[in-house]
Design brief:
The complex is a heterodimer of chains A (289) and B (303). Chain A is mostly helical. Chain A is 75% helix and 0% strand. Chain A has helices spanning 8-46, 51-57, 69-76, 79-110, 116-125, 135-144, 152-175, 179-187, 192-203, 205-220, 224-229, 238-248, 253-286. Chain A contains 13 helices and no strands. Helix content of chain B is 78%, strand content 1%. Chain B is built from 13 helices and two strands. The radius of gyration of chain B is 26 Å and the shape is flat. The termini of chain B are far apart. The chains are: A mainly alpha (289), B mainly alpha (303). The interface between A and B is large, with 97 and 91 residues.
Chain lengths: 289, 303
Amino acid sequence: MVNPNMSEADYRKSKIKSRIAWGVAIFFACIWLVLTLTPFFFMIINSFRKQFDMLQQGVFHLPDPWFFDNYVNVVSHGFFGYFLRSVIVVAISLVLMLAISAFAAYPLARMSFKLNPFIYALIVAMMSVPMHVTLIPIFKLTTSVGLYDSLGSLIGPYVAFALPMSVFILTAFMKTIPKEVEESAEIDGCNRYQNFFKMILPLSKSGLSTLAIYNGVSMWNEFAFANTLLITPEKKTLPLALGQFKGEHSLDIPIILAVLTLSVLPMITLFIVFQDKLVKGMMAGAVKG
Amino acid sequence: MKNENNIGLAQARAKSTAKAATVFLIPALLLITIYIIYPVIDTFVISGYKWNGISSDRIFIGTENWVSLFKDEMFWKSFKHNLIVMVFSILLQIPMGMLLATFLDAGGKKFNIFKIIWFLPYLMSSVAIAFLFVYALATNGGIVSSLATLIMGKKTTIDLLGTAPNALYTVIGVMAWQFTPFYMVYFIAGYGNIDTSIYEAAIIDGATRWQYIKHIAIPLLGPIFKTACTMSLIGSLKYFDMIWNMTQGGPAGSTELMATYMYKLSFQQFNMGYGSAVAAGMFLLITAIALIFNKVFKVKEEY
């Protein structure tokens, strides 16, 4: 809309000014684009050549010739094992975490009982506990129950540390579901448990899916617990694969870059498919924070 | 009689509510107790012992670990590094994230490609970023040194990670690369949460898109700004993964943080008693700083 009091010349002037402003903004936007992409570019092109060529040809040259053996090498040295173990741990942890946080959010959002505000505050307060503080006791606990150096050892900590934030977001989400939904279900003879499974849970689907993406990414990338609780290479998850490969090929940079490229690929694919969901998930967190 | 019946009914209902709530809450409370509350308490307990983490004999030494912690120069140096990281994280990541989000919000859908590419670093794990930048910043075959060689026309090396004052600021730069996209999406979400009717009203009143952003949208983002600062603050005080994989706190302890120091003591030197004291100290410092920050900001909001 144009301000009616503006003269023709003023209008043109403001248009030129806005053009220049946009030009400058796009210029800086492109600089940030280059800063973002350069490391990726470095990683991908150098994963397709031999170590010797990398130093010989210069790191910004396109590979000549393109060399695929790094990838063959990485895959034949158990890359998919690491990958598969990460998929298993993340899948089990996510399903458990979503179920348990939905269970917990339901009474907190929709039932009134004496301890409700206290329990809610307790769970929310857990959001700010740094996991590193718990590392030694969890290491101790895991060894004493015999879970040490097994994939099972990761599930408990992964679920527990994702819970506070998820319960917080889901509680807020479930509060927005209108009361009438439950009332009408109750008239139809549903009890609280049926209410939850038949009405509330299906209606929370979009909240749950954003939480799945958000927590899936952080579980997929988790390092500290995995590094502390797993020791055998055949049991390690993907974030540990890098250290493992580096130990075996310490001087071969392109091989490590191939591992890096392969481990980032699934996340990038998922992001491009689900990017709107991800933004929505963060919006849910930003509502009250 | 009828009244009594009603009370009885209400009581029965309250009872069944409490029962249902308990059933629904038990799994979450159980897990949180086992994996968060108990370990935090246990960290304080272990800090009273001399213990290597493996053998069954732990020797109770009272406050000895805590006395050492107060005198431990390395711990306070690490804490200082955490504070430097914290200040620069807040100063770099949040304004930059805000700027990018503002650009995307003003530009609308046609800049989607910027959004997708800008977000990419956040999809990499901290471990992957650490490895990538160790190579990208290497003196031999790294990006920066290769560029310098290209510009100078002769072999030039810029050692960003291998020398003392540089390393910490290099790490801070890499962290900005990693986390700016997170705050960008966060602020995009913030812009998206603003009621569209406010925008429509502003446009009808003759405001340009830019005027709307400057005078209406940004002031409305205040609370989100505060949350972003709190997240950045806590995040940088407990930072671990990337530093551990990139420098292990080196060279010569110049990038040592509280968490890497704790990890080194506990899982490399197997001095878990003292490691627990460091962890507990870290917990107290983070909690205190977060509380102070929240208090200061609350006071500011009232004016």
